[in-house]
Design a protein that fits this description.
The termini are far apart. The model has no long low-confidence stretch (mean pLDDT 85). The protein is mostly helical and 98 residues long. It is built from 4 helices and no strands. Helix content is 72%, strand content 0%.
């Protein structure tokens, strides 16, 4: 349980950085979008693992950022973005609306 507490705390810290990046604007390059999406996806996996022990556990910041990322990338057709985020989109389909 201690390990999960540390992992969840670290994930939340990383998500705060993602929130900052997402609120700074939309002129992010493909690598930056990939980094943000991967961080959100990693946090989502940690939360899902922990929910197997505590099904009622929620991380509101994670849910907020999934919705924000999905909305921000809804109409993206930039080939660099699409190419660079393909691995994360395959790993965690709910991060992107397509």
């Amino acid at each position: 349980m201690q390990d999960y507490a540390e992992r969840l705390t670290e994930a939340e810290k990383q998500l705060l950085h993602v929130r900052h990046w997402l609120t700074c604007g939309s002129d992010l390059n493909g690598h930056e979008w990939l980094m943000l999406a991967q961080t959100i996806s990693d946090a989502d996996l940690i939360v899902r693992e922990f929910q197997q022990l505590r099904p009622d556990y929620q991380m509101p910041l994670l849910n907020e950022l999934i919705a924000t990322l999905s909305e921000a990338t809804r109409n993206f057709t930039n080939p660099d973005f699409v190419r660079s985020t393909t691995p994360v989109r395959r790993q965690n389909k709910r991060l992107f609306c397509r």
